[in-house]
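A common beginner's mistake is to predict each chain separately and then try to dock the pieces by hand. The better habit, illustrated here, is to supply every component at once so that their relative placement is modeled jointly.
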Amino acid sequence: MIKIAIFGYGNIGHAAEAAIRKAQDMTLVGVFHHDEADRVIASEPDVVLLCTPTREVQEWAPLFLNKGICTIDSFDIHGEIYPLAENLTPICREGKAVAIISAGWDPGSDSMIRAIMTALVPEGVGYTNFGPGRSMGHTVAAKAIAGVKDALSMTLPAGKGKHNRHVYIEIEEGYDFEQVKAAILRDDYFAHDDTEVELVPSVAAINTTNHGVHIERNGLSGDTPDEQIDFTMRINNPALTGQMMTSCARAAYRMRQRAEWGCFTTIELRPIDLLPWEREKAIREMV
Amino acid sequence: MIKIAIFGYGNIGHAAEAAIRKAQDMTLVGVFHHDEADRVIASEPDVVLLCTPTREVQEWAPLFLNKGICTIDSFDIHGEIYPLAENLTPICREGKAVAIISAGWDPGSDSMIRAIMTALVPEGVGYTNFGPGRSMGHTVAAKAIAGVKDALSMTLPAGKGKHNRHVYIEIEEGYDFEQVKAAILRDDYFAHDDTEVELVPSVAAINTTNHGVHIERNGLSGDTPDEQIDFTMRINNPALTGQMMTSCARAAYRMRQRAEWGCFTTIELRPIDLLPWEREKAIREMV
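With all components supplied together, the output reads:
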């Protein structure tokens, strides 16, 4: 049995808990809040799921990796993924542990899909179209604006990898909607996209964790044109993130057993390592 | 540069040649017919693509693996893939080579997609729906029936992983269509599916190598239901097969360099190894 700890108990921590309880090859050794790192280590897990905010991964991961405990995170700032891997790699090797970073769905499973599509259609164009669905990051950014009482920022696909945003807000008493709206539109999170801000009586009433993605690639296999590949999901955002992190925990455990210490992204994982079965069953069922 | 040889020069061999010529990290050392195995070895390739019929893989692969030359095939008899892997594994280890088997699109890239979908939605139902498109195996089987002058067998998706077949034939002079049709319907290749046989003036006029697949999976991530994932391709059958085999040649070469000798299916490959880039570029572009 693979011993797993959950560190950070928000939406993703709760979802990961459900995924671990369903996995017959895993035991949940504990669920810990972000001020309990010492208790995580004392629980002697094989793998800890870092369900803390993305910006804290660099801070927490070394604590566990140093002790030989593998870490999984869903770090999602695309431009900073490679530097994070570079930073964690020596720590993993020193601690004889495996870190799998950016192991949610995008980055994460979508990254694996993009790599496979590109192997099939090396010359071509590809787009990742998100939504419609709730953007966790943009929702947090909108809530941080002065006068915003509650917010929900939806990502709407506009085609060819472009997106529009639709921000639903409630405002605090004494604030003017037009001024709050202008502040949101000036915010760096929203300034680059076509964004609509709408005042609603209750954000809670329209809340959703549903999300989706459409990854498309079109081009040539060899010199044959017009190959078309599409991958589409309609999913629950935290549930899929927690599930992918849990499946990656299995991969990290196996890689540590094989002494493949280091920090890896999902495109560096073997898909078979995500599955609970022995090799023969995996090949017979999946290949 | 990775030195590649093509062994067998039919539809797939031709498609692989185009894919190799496009790959900037590969050199094509030669294209060889199936009676030229000695010349393949003399050309000292790193990897040989076995573009011979599926049934011949077990016969040819050991010749090359014994010499430390990696092999890639598109062996497509699903129930016999694991036994083939078992047979080739000791030969690979002895020869310090890597065999990647069943490395077309199904089995092949579709197998990787199914494994990733299952990691995301462990409890659920999945279906692989082929076509509409030309079935290479069923077309050959129809052509082998006495009285058939030319044939094209199309696979038509009937939903939930079920398929119908539509066989277009021309018949030899002196044969009766109804009798030829009855012989086709009795053949083991066609006896298990809903099959329609149609007499046409010219099979060549309706010939196609276009094909497609829709892989779907629906179920739970953790305890959250109604997750829905779909993967769809419209592709040229030999072109995609030749391209996937070529991308897998790169993976085999790298795995041999890392002394990861053995026989592997596509679900045991890291997607990054299919791509021509160095690690940093692959992570920055794909993750």
